[in-house]
Amino acid sequence: MSSAQLPGAWGRIFLPFALGYYLSYLLRTVNAVISPALSLELGLSASQLGLLTSAYFVAFGLMQIPIGIALDRYGPRRVEGSLLLVTALGGVAFATGDSLTSLGLARGLLGLGVSACLMAGLKGFAMWYPPERQGSMTGFIMAAGALGALTASAPLEALLPLLGWRGLFWGITACALLASAWIFISLPDEAPHTGEDTLTAALASVAGIFRSRDFLRYAAAATFFTGGFMALQGLWVVPWLMNVNGLELAGAARYLLILNLGMLAGQLAMGLFGTRLARSGIRSPTILRAGYAGMLLVELALLTDCLPLGLAWCLFGVFSAVNSQSYLAAAGYFPRTQFGRVSTAVNLMAFAGAFAVQWGMGLALDGLQLAGHALDCALKIAFGGLLAVQFCAYLPLLRVKRAPV
């Protein structure tokens, strides 16, 4: 059944998915604002803070392959609606946690619970919207995620003195319950049709994807560009602004808001102009190369402080919008019937990268400070290391052949 056959399709289909992805992105980035309070209350080191925050990415990433298969078999309504109940459980656990272990487990539950939010939305759009609207719907749901990131900046920083970080997570729990109920009530109960594809065959097809050179080329970029951006946005931007640029938390939260506004603008632009660019012959690989080149230049400007601070963080957010094109670019080398599995495989690599970069930067900061470097210097060295790795991941994209499908 297409969206044209569903009365009120925007409210019945898009908005429930948008709320889920909004919540997913809010949870991904919320620790950037609450990290000073967490560190103070629990006495966390930089590496412990990085490990705690990255537990979300570990759980999220481990779920991607099962999610891809489950969406094919059971449909987005049942998969996302059920997992958002796990999100609510994780919110309760985080709001009541009192140690690194309990909060880490709660953070993992949160990552598991929202692990289907984007992929379920993309699958639902493929089921219930006509093909010519896929690009726009993808851009718009990514914009909903950007709104979640916006919320997890200056607005949450303003609420923090009133509610505390525990109160914020009680609110997040209520939002997760609302999103789950909306999905179960609103979405059509229609699972996609996958024929006689067995679990063994599904796993074999996933293994084939990971062996493909075409997939691995984009996987490397997703790991360090998409994953690196998530690691910075979700945690290390605020410590950078406070220690390298000398801002207070409120000022750092405002620049995080600017970053997220830039990301929102970029995602909306992708939604509005993506179809037009494709029709003119400018496809996902080209957009991806141009956007990643822009990210590298802006990161270099941040490292060398050669652009106005607000402009640099805004541009970083704008260029990050091309991360969504990695799903389409990689999927172009595989049959359309494998779109869900290819996109979740790309997502797995992105979240593995977010975990590695987020925790790895924490370890690097602790080690560099033990070696006698001041925190601002240690942050610059760690950031420069990420920039170098991203440049190496960018080079294979220059040799991309045209996708056969």
UniProtKB/TrEMBL annotation:
Alphabetical list of InterPro entries matching this protein: MFS, MFS_dom, MFS_Efflux_Transporters, MFS_trans_sf
One Gene Ontology molecular-function label: transmembrane transporter activity
Topological type in the membrane: Multi-pass membrane protein
Highest taxon of the lineage: Bacteria
SUPFAM superfamilies in UniProt: MFS general substrate transporter
Transmembrane segments: 9-27, 47-71, 83-103, 136-156, 168-187, 218-241, 253-274, 342-361, 381-400
A Gene Ontology cellular-component term: plasma membrane
Residue ranges constituting the Major facilitator superfamily (MFS) profile domain according to the UniProt record: 13-405
Main location class: membrane
Subcellular location: Cell membrane
Keyword line: Cell membrane, Membrane, Transmembrane, Transmembrane helix
PANTHER family per record: CHLORAMPHENICOL EFFLUX PUMP RV0191, PURINE EFFLUX PUMP PBUE
Name recorded for this polypeptide: Sugar phosphate permease
Organism annotation: Azoarcus indigens
Highest classification ranks of the organism: Bacteria, Pseudomonadati, Pseudomonadota, Betaproteobacteria, Rhodocyclales
